[in-house]
C-alpha cells in the first residue's frame, strides 16, 4: 500500500503532484491511502514519491476545475474518488461526459454541495463591531464545507474599506484594508457578541417580510436552520411564520386599493421628462416625484427620496440640508438626533411643530461608507441647484410667510447665494415671492459643539431665531 500525506485538508496542489506521480508509475487506486498530516494510520510510513515514468499524460481543464471544487468537500473519500477518476481517464477520455457513471455523479454532487456552501457563506456572514479605534468587525461562521479560503477574495472586494475577520472552525481569514491573511481555525467561544446595529437589521428584516409569499419549505431550504444561530434576524422567523396566516387573511380581507394616477404620472415625469418639465401641482405629486427623481446622481446610493412633511398651508417652513441616515431609512424628515434637537428647540420657542412644514434643500441622502456606517457628506452646489426645483415647488404650493434656513446649504438653496449665519441671523431677509427668510444654525451643528458653555450659548441663539421666525409668521 502507498500512503500519501497531504499538507492540509484542501491541499489541491499536493494532491495533484502526488496523483500525477502515482499515475505515472502505474500505481492502482485501490493500493493508495490518502491522508492529511496528523491523520490516518500512525504506523504507516509514507513512501517517497518517485517521478512519473517517461511518456507523461494530460487531463482536461474541466477535470482540474472539478477536482479543485471536490477537494473542498468534507467527505473523507474525496481524494481517492478523484484519483480513481484520474486513473480511469487514461482509458476513458470521455468519462466526464457519462452523466450516469457513479464516480462522475458522486464528484459532480460534491462540487454542487461545495458551490452551495460558498453561496451560503456569502449570503449569511453577519459582521459585528469588535473595535472602534480603528473601527473593526468580525463574524463567526460554520461553513458546510471548507470554502472559507476560496470565498475570501469575495469578501475582500465586497468589504474593501472595512477591517474585518471571519472566524470559522477550519481557518480564519483577516482583511486589514490592503491584504488577506489566513490563521488557524477558532473556537465558537471566540465568536463576537451582538452589536447595536442588529436591532436596525431586525427591524428592516421584519418590514420586508411578506406573509403572502411565505413558503416555509423553500425558505428553510434557502436558509437552512444550521445557519440560524449566526443570523441576527433568525430570532424573528418563528414568530413571523406563526403570524403569517393571520396577516395574509387580513390583507385578503382589505378592499383593493385604487391606482394613484397622480403618483404614477409624477413618477414618470420625474424619471423621463426634461429638466424644466411642468412643476408638480400637489404635495402628493412632489413626494412621488422626489422618490423617482434622477436630476442628480444622489439617488443611486440612497434608499429613497425624502420629501418634506407638514400642513399644506403652513405659515412657517423650515429647510434643512438633506436627509440623514435615519431619515433615508424612514422616508421622513428630521427623525434622527438632529430632528429631536429641532423638536426640542421649536417647543421652547413656542412654535407648534404640527403647524410647521419641515423639508430639506436636497432630498436624497449623500454619504460615504465607512465599514457598516454611512457617513454624511455635504451636497455640492450642483446637487443643491438640481434639487432646488423640488424645494421651489414646495414653497409655491405651501406659500409660507417665513422660511427658516438651517445651515449654509439650506441658505444657498433658498437665497441662491451664500448667506453666512453669523452675519445674517436675527434679520428678516426679503425673498422674491414676498416671504421672509431667517438664517440660523443647523441642529446637527449644535450636536457637534464640544464645549458645554459654547453649546448652551449656540442653542439659546437657535431657540431665539426660531421664536423670531414664528413671530414674523404670526
Descriptive report:
A hairpin with a 4-residue loop joins strand 6 and strand 7. This protein starts with a strand and ends with a helix. The chain is an alpha/beta fold. The longest helix has 23 residues. Helix 3 packs across helix 4 and helix 10 packs antiparallel against helix 13. About 2% of the residues have low confidence.
Question: What descriptive keywords fit this protein?
Answer:
five-stranded mixed β-sheet; 17 helices; 14 strands; single chain
Q: What is the C-alpha radius of gyration, as a whole number of Å?
A: 32 Å
Approximate strand percentage: 5-15%
Residue stretches low in confidence (pLDDT < 50, at least 5 long) are 39-47
Q: If you average the pLDDT, what whole number results? A: 87
Helical residue percent band: 40-55%
Described by the principal axes of the CA atoms, the overall outline is: elongated
Q: Taking strands numbered 1, 2, ... along the chain, how are they ordered across the largest sheet?
A: 3-4-5-6-7
| Number of helices in the DSSP assignment | 17
Q: Can you summarize the main beta sheet?
A: 5 strands, mixed
Termini separation (Å)? 99 Å
Overall strand count: 14
User: Would you tell me the structural class of the helices and strands?
Assistant: alpha/beta
Give a short overview:
This protein is α/β, with parallel strands linked by helices and 474 residues long. It is built from 17 helices and 14 strands.
Q: How would the blueprint of this fold be written?
A:
Elements: E1 2-6, H1 12-25, E2 32-36, H2 61-70, H3 78-89, H4 102-124, E3 128-132, E4 135-140, H5 148-158, E5 164-167, E6 171-175, E7 180-184, H6 198-208, H7 216-222, H8 237-253, H9 261-272, H10 283-292, E8 316-320, H11 325-330, H12 337-349, E9 356-360, E10 367-370, E11 373-376, H13 381-398, E12 402-406, H14 408-415, H15 421-424, E13 429-430, E14 436-440, H16 443-448, H17 452-473
Parallel strand pairs: 1-2, 4-5, 8-9, 8-12, 12-14
Antiparallel strand pairs: 3-4, 5-6, 6-7, 10-11, 13-14
Amino acid at each position: 500500500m502507498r500512503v500519501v500525506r497531504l499538507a492540509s485538508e484542501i491541499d489541491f496542489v499536493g494532491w495533484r503532484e502526488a496523483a500525477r506521480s502515482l499515475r505515472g508509475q502505474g500505481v492502482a487506486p485501490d493500493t493508495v491511502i490518502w491522508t492529511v498530516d496528523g491523520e490516518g494510520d500512525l504506523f504507516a510510513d509514507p513512501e517517497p514519491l518517485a517521478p512519473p515514468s517517461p511518456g507523461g499524460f494530460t487531463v482536461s481543464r474541466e477535470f482540474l476545475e472539478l477536482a479543485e471544487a471536490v477537494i473542498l468537500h468534507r467527505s473523507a473519500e474525496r481524494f481517492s474518488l478523484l484519483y480513481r477518476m484520474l486513473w480511469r481517464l487514461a482509458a476513458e477520455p470521455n468519462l466526464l461526459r457519462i452523466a450516469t457513471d457513479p464516480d462522475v455523479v458522486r464528484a459532480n454532487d460534491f462540487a454542487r454541495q461545495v458551490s452551495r456552501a460558498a453561496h451560503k457563506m456569502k449570503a449569511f456572514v453577519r459582521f459585528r463591531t469588535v473595535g472602534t479605534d480603528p473601527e473593526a468587525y468580525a463574524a463567526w461562521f460554520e461553513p458546510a464545507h471548507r470554502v472559507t479560503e476560496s470565498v475570501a477574495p469575495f469578501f475582500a472586494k465586497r468589504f474593501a474599506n472595512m477591517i474585518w475577520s471571519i472566524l470559522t472552525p477550519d481557518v480564519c481569514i483577516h482583511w486589514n484594508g490592503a491584504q488577506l491573511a489566513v490563521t488557524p481555525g477558532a473556537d465558537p467561544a471566540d465568536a463576537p457578541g451582538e452589536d447595536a446595529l442588529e436591532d436596525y437589521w431586525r427591524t428592516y428584516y421584519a418590514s420586508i417580510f411578506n406573509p403572502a409569499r411565505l413558503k416555509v419549505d423553500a425558505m428553510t431550504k434557502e436558509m437552512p436552520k444550521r445557519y440560524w444561530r449566526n443570523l441576527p434576524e433568525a430570532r424573528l422567523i418563528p414568530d413571523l411564520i406563526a403570524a403569517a396566516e393571520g396577516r395574509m387573511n387580513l390583507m385578503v380581507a382589505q378592499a383593493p386599493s385604487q391606482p394613484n394616477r397622480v403618483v404614477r404620472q409624477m413618477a414618470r415625469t420625474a424619471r423621463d421628462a426634461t429638466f424644466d418639465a411642468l412643476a408638480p401641482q400637489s404635495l402628493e405629486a412632489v413626494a412621488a416625484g422626489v422618490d423617482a427623481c434622477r436630476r442628480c446622481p444622489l439617488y443611486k446610493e440612497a434608499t429613497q427620496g425624502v420629501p418634506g412633511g407638514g400642513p399644506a398651508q403652513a405659515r412657517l417652513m423650515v429647510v434643512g440640508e438633506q436627509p440623514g441616515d435615519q431619515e433615508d431609512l424612514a422616508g421622513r424628515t428630521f427623525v434622527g438626533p438632529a430632528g429631536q434637537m429641532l423638536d426640542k428647540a421649536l417647543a421652547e420657542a413656542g412654535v407648534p411643530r404640527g403647524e410647521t412644514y419641515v423639508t430639506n434643500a436636497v432630498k436624497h441622502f449623500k454619504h460615504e461608507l465607512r465599514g457598516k456606517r454611512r457617513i454624511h457628506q455635504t451636497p455640492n452646489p450642483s446637487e443643491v441647484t438640481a434639487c432646488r426645483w423640488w424645494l421651489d415647488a414646495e414653497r409655491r404650493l405651501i406659500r409660507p410667510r417665513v422660511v427658516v434656513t438651517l445651515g449654509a446649504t439650506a441658505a444657498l438653496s433658498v437665497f441662491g447665494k451664500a448667506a453666512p449665519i453669523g452675519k445674517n441671523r436675527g434679520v428678516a431677509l426679503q425673498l422674491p415671492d414676498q416671504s421672509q427668510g431667517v438664517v440660523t444654525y443647523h441642529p446637527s451643528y449644535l450636536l457637534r459643539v464640544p464645549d458645554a458653555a459654547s453649546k448652551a450659548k449656540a442653542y439659546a441663539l437657535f431657540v431665539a431665531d426660531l421664536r423670531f421666525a414664528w413671530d414674523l409668521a404670526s
